[in-house]
Structures are given as C-alpha cells and as structure tokens.
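TL;DR need structure tokens for one chain.
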Amino acid sequence: MEDQELKEIYENAMKDIEKIDSLDSLNEVKNDYLSKKSRFMGLMAKMKELTIEGKKAFGEAINRAKNDITTKIEEKRILLEQKQLEKKLKEEEIDFTLPAVNYEIGGKNPFFIIQDEMIDIFLGMGYEIAEGPEVELDHFNFELLNIPKDHPARDMQDTFYIDENTLMRTHTSPVQARVMQEKKGKPIKIICPGKVYRRDDDDATHSHQFGQIEGLVVDKNITLSNLKATLELFIKKMYGEKREIRLRSSYFPFTEPSVEVDVSCDCGGKENCSKCKGTGWIEILGGGMVHPNVLKMSGYDPNEYQGFAFGVGIERVAMLRYGIDDIRRFYQNDVRFLSQFKRK
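>> reply
TL;DR here they are.
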C-alpha cells in the first residue's frame, strides 16, 4: 500500500480489531471502517486527482484493505461468540450432585371421580345435562315443587337465606322446575348435577354443603317401573352387576308415590358389617313419580303426561364405593387422602 493515509487506516483498523473484547464493540469498529460513511470513503476523494491507471491501482488497494479488515472482523466475531458460549455453558453448568426435582402426579378428588362417572352413565342413557343458579328464588326452590310457604316439609330443608325470597338452593330440583317452565308441555329427560346447601350439623355423615345429581323424565305413559329400571341400571353400572335395589315407601312433597331406594350391601348381610349394620341393605337415594300439582304448575296436563324424578348425593355414592368414613374428607384437601386416588 503506497498511499500513506490508506496504510494508516488499515493498520489502525487491525489494531482496533485486535483489542476488541465484546461483540458490541466489534460492531462499532465495523461501522467505523466499513460502512458507507467510513474512513475509506474519505479516500475516494483522491481518485479524481489520479490517472486512469492510478485510479485502478488505488481502487484495488482500497478493496484489498477492506477485504482484509472484513476477514479479520469475522474471525474476531467467531472467537468472541465462542468465548460467550463457553461462559454461558459454564454459568449454566448442571450440578449432578443436586437431588432431582420430583414431579409427582396428583390425585383427583373422589367427589369428581364419582360425579364424572355418574354423569357418563346417565348420558349413556340418553339424558341431557341441565344447570341453574346456586342462589335461587323461593318460587323455584319450594313453591313450584309443591312446597308452599309455611309447609312443614320446609323444615327438612332449612337453608341459608339471602333475603325473604332468595336463598342458597337446598337441592337441584329448582333446575328441573326451570326446565319444566321453559319446555311447557314438551318431553323432558335431564339430569341436574351441582352443589346444594342446607343448615345442618357438620359430622361424619352430614355437611352444610354437598353435591347432588337429580334426574327428571316427563313424557306420556311413564310409570314407576321406568324409574325402577333406570335406577337398577344405574346401580349395576356404578357398583357391579351383582348389586340389587329395593324400593321402600316414603314421602317427598314433589313426588307421589315416593320411594326410598336401597342398594344391596356387598357383605351379604353380615352382622358385623359397618356399612349396612347387618341388614344387607344401604339407603342411597330417593325418588318417585312427579306430583300432579308439580306438573300442573309448569303447564303439563297430568292426565296426559307423567314423570319420575330422583336425587342422589355424590358424596354418599363415593363413600360407599371407596369405603370413606367421613364426608368432611372430601373438603379438607388432605394430600394423604387425595394421594389414594392418583390419576392413571
């Protein structure tokens, strides 16, 4: 390089590149020497003073210098990136002596296991799911279910009132009433799963809040035998083909006739059985034929339409299935209890 200024720019560039210790600084040097506003562009002004042969020689010299600098910069970039990677790997080095993180699979609350299984069974029978508000009007929770104000049956379902006409629902039957009001004279086949509330003692078998699934079928030519066949199929799918049911007369204001439904105990009636107390039967749910008054209040002619309804507590079914001794275990979030129901 005969031009002294070109020689100085070239040598300074090589020295600057050699001293660089970061990628950011390298980019600054690259812009300083190789961009359109770099120092090399200032040398182009000399071209007009040279002959044709001089311009050619000088241009070639500038290009060689720029190529050398570009190569040097790329070599330096590779070196700096390698050092940066090594530093990162060293900082993020895995310590194999540390204990591994144990990602344990959690357990599903048996309440939801049973609820999902019950819903699947009834969906397989052709039922639809209906839902409604948990904060309910007295009109739907009691009056449309043949439980007028001051009726003694209300004492069995004492609950939490928001105001004179608003309360926490005591069963999912108000969902049935709402569907009947909506359908008015059309066939119905629904289940109503959800939480219900009653002012009750908190002990091993009672809770002020619990889960319930109620069913309702309204159509022509519905009889009590349809209810029995439905519940018998449900029990066999839930507890096994060997289980039997029996119906006992009972009273519910919204059904007539009304029945309590017992399921046969798997012990066969042993005296020391803690579940059936030696009787061979366990009470599990209630049901009956929809009361004519309930049908009339929702726009159905009881001479043309009949229906059956039933209600079953989710926790009660789960307690019988798994031998759970205390209903409060469903709500305590005890890991020791839930770990018995790990997902597979």
